[in-house]
Design a protein that fits this description.
The chain is of the alpha/beta class and 261 residues long. Helix content is 33%, strand content 23%. The protein has one domain: Vaccinia Virus protein VP39 (Rossmann fold), CATH 3.40.50.150. Strand 4, helix 5 and strand 5 form a beta-alpha-beta unit. The relative contact order is 0.14.
């Protein structure tokens, strides 16, 4: 049986992944119906529908993940954290096997995530938390916070979280509340000239939506972005002419270093 499984894996066939995908089909359909109903009822329509992008197995896995653009992102932000040397650093939802691991190599990190985490390092402390909770209880806990390639998933149900069309707004409010005045927030999401959601994978933001989120509570210390070819651009003006059209990107990554007022 083990040999047959190995042969199947060699040709890209994973019986385990197939069974998890079948198991995930029912919650995908239920979440999609609920989310689309919330979208139709919304008065804002901030994110129009894009293509369908089913992610049927993520809700049954532990907090992690891997994509090419993350390598560039994780190294860049880890270097910023190292240079700033905060009193405490807290991460929300970033890759434990990427960014968090990089930071944990030189300092302690407290990690908050909706999904459980059982694989830990002595420099990583885990707290399970719902960042969309209205009774969120982690306000003012840190002078340094990261949330990388995470907010775009809030409220889509992909990771077993409740479906909520406005989950990204609730999540960002709670993220901002975690910082003490003067604290630093390292924040990233996918960005594109065409803002959209691709259910149930992610939302893709434009620069103007990001700036509106920050207004009145967070100032921009630095901005960088990763383009569609995974190239890093640093010291970029997020209010310039090119930024007005989100640099013409289809699926890039915005990297913000923000300061709490």
């Amino acid at each position: 049986m083990g040999r047959i499984k190995s042969l199947l894996n060699l040709f890209g066939v994973s019986p385990g992944a197939g069974s998890r995908a079948l198991r995930g089909l029912a919650p995908y359909r239920a979440n999609k119906r609920a989310f689309m109903a919330q979208y139709q009822a919304s008065s804002t329509k901030d994110f129009p529908p894009g293509k369908l992008y089913p992610c049927l197995t993520d809700r049954y896995e532990e907090s992690s993940g891997a994509l090419g653009v993350y390598f560039v992102q994780d190294l860049y932000v880890a270097q910023l954290v190292h240079a700033n040397n905060p009193r405490r650093h807290v991460d929300v939802g970033s890759r434990v096997d990427g960014f968090v691991g990089s930071v944990a190599s030189f300092r302690h990190v407290d990690v908050l995530d909706f999904r459980p985490l059982t694989s830990v390092h002595r420099n990583i402390a885990f707290i399970q938390a719902d960042l969309m909770a209205k009774d969120f209880k982690h306000q003012g806990i840190t002078d340094s916070l990261s949330c990388l390639h995470t907010l775009e998933h809030f409220g889509l149900g992909r990771y077993g979280d409740p479906v909520n069309y406005d989950g990204w707004k609730l999540g960002f409010d709670n993220l901002a509340s975690m910082l003490t005045p003067g604290g630093t927030f390292y924040f990233s999401t996918p960005i594109s000239e065409r803002q959209r959601f691709e259910f149930d994978a992610h939302r893709v933001f434009n620069i103007q939506t990001h700036l509106a989120l920050f207004e009145g509570r967070l100032d921009v210390r630095s901005f960088a972005y990763i383009d569609d070819q995974d190239r890093l651009h640093t010291r970029v003006d997020p209010t310039g002419t090119d930024a007005q059209r989100t640099f013409g990107l289809n699926y890039g990554c915005a990297l913000w270093e923000l300061v709490k007022r």
